[in-house]
Amino acid sequence: MPDHYYSSNPGAEHDRRILEAELRGGKLSFVSDAGVFSKQGVDYGSRVLIEAMEFSENAAILDVGCGYGPIGLTAARLAPAGQVTMIDINERAVELAKENAERNRINNVTVLQSDLFQAVLGKRFDVILTNPPIRAGKEIVHSIFDLAFDHLNEGGALWVVIQKKQGAPSAKTKLESLFSRVEEVTKDKGYRIFKATK
């Protein structure tokens, strides 16, 4: 079976490259590589989520499926007095995210390899951000929603980006079964941003 970006240890030949991106008014520089999600540049869905997400500057934030780091590192810049934990099952993505935190001199982040939420069991967050791994299947995506609920503080919010054609309606129904309030914050080119408040 071929590797996917949600493999724990992708075997793809390395193809490291430098990407520059302007996100929320700040420039970030990323190293990306083969075997990770959206290696050519920050994907559109992540950009839509980054533009929409809102939280206090001292929030405790979790980025689930962080890849090489665009969402979590932008969040860390927007919450300079907060702390961002970034998790991904993909060992290569985790190493890149650590490298990219250093590269951009962002210090309020912790990057951990984690199958779903295993590395943060028992921890609670004010905000959870995710561009979920749609190709891993609906069961995995919905289990991220279940686990996010358990890992949020009361009044905390899960922010999700998902494409309409890749299951946004069923994602919204699932979120509504868990959370007291679910809003569609924005939509852009088929991408939906949901904010689910506990």
Automatic annotation (TrEMBL):
Gene3D superfamilies assigned: Vaccinia Virus protein VP39
Keyword Acetylation: no
Pfam families noted in UniProt: MTS
Domain Methyltransferase small: 28-195
Any GO molecular function: 23S rRNA (guanine(1835)-N(2))-methyltransferase activity
CDD domains found in the cross-reference section: AdoMet_MTases
EC number: 2.1.1.172, 2.1.1.174
Entry keywords, A to Z: Methyltransferase, Transferase
Protein name: Class I SAM-dependent methyltransferase
Organism: Paenibacillus medicaginis
